[in-house]
Amino acid sequence: KVYRKIRKGVWVDMGFYDLIDGFNKFDGKRNVFKFLLKPNTNEIDENPDYIDLLHNRQIPGEVQREVYERDKGECRICGSKDNLHLDHILPYSKGGSSKVATNIQLLCARHNLQKGAKFQ
What pLDDT score does 97 carry? Predict the structure, then answer.
């Protein structure tokens, strides 16, 4: 499983990947261990909806960062900074886009689960 760091303490689940190779690379100051990864094809083959999820529902990293900065790293409803979710304002299941920050907001787990697939 691969996670992408958005900010200190904020990580996003990027799904399953296969490790192809690992190697050391000197960056001019230090040796850095690098990984070569590719999406896990078994998961994609076993779940035909995965490709749709991967390409349409997944919120791009730049949109995630923009939303996190705009919402100041806190739930838009209660201001909590714990257990935050990226929520579609117009739910994806109702045609909402994952590609624009104006349709994404930060909500704590409690408020995101209360909202469900409703448009508020």
Answer: 86
